[in-house]
Amino acid sequence: MLTLTALVLSAATSLRIWRTGPKPASSQLRIVCRYDVPSKKWARRKLQLPAKLGLYWLEWNEGREVVKSLAYFGPILCQDVEIGPAPKGMIATCVPAENSATAMFVPDPEVECKK
Description:
The chain is mostly beta strands. It has one helix at residues 109-112, and strands at 4-9, 15-20, 27-36, 41-44, 54-62, 65-73, 90-96, 101-107. A hairpin with a 5-residue loop joins strand 1 and strand 2. The termini are far apart.
């Protein structure tokens, strides 16, 4: 059975996870990437939960299942990311910053974080 998990990271608190389904017996972080706005690229990070504001891609095991999700770490999130169809190889998402958040197209982290 797959477990649905959503992540929101808050600068004021910590990781918040909303999960439906049974709690997994074990979990292990596999990939952490952070989107760098100036270079418009994803960068692999150490295998620990984020501490710097920004947009992250996390991949982890929940029991035998691999779970993947964007994680938003910052005080503000976008209200709407309806910015049109994403170009090939990109996704539309919200990129948090210190005092704002911007909806934009970013390279698909599921592809880019595997490189």
